[in-house]
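Tutorial handout. Part one gives the primary structure; part two gives the three-dimensional structure as tokens.
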Amino acid sequence: MEGKTMTDTLQHVDLPAEFRVRLDYYWQSLAVYALTLIVYIIVRALWEATLQQGIVKVVLTDPIVVLLGVFVLGSTVSLLFNSIARRTIIISDEGITFTSRFHVRTFGRSELESITLGRDRRIRAQGMFSVIRIRITGRRRALRVRAALYEGEHRLIAALLTLRAQLHAHHS
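Part two.
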């Protein structure tokens, strides 16, 4: 693979393209926290039963049960909020649109200064690119999009590269 970059292996994506936020992370974290809570309660109940001659006593004021309960509750609220919000990114020839049930924000091609693919130094994320920075005219800070959080991560990157190529052709 001499002379090829990682972006050369991406497939071409026809614009407009729509990408939804993945919810599997939220489901997985909820499952892990809930399972941990259940296992801890069972182990604690069995431990208490053997120590106190068959009397099963599960203390719900146990700090670990409360902490795990907070995690389960937080994961549930996060999952519900994100599934209700239905956040998406729509990339078209005219620009980028960020949508949710509550808000729609469109940045036209004339507002887009640059699209940069790279790594986030603060978080060691796996994947081809961990973060995409989109510079907008008139904004001090770039928009940061984590491609791995969206369904069709590689298609999202390819669509952004297509839009970036159009930007370069437009600015030239």
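Part three, for discussion. The longest strand covers residues 112-118. The chain has two domains: 14-21+89-171, 25-83.
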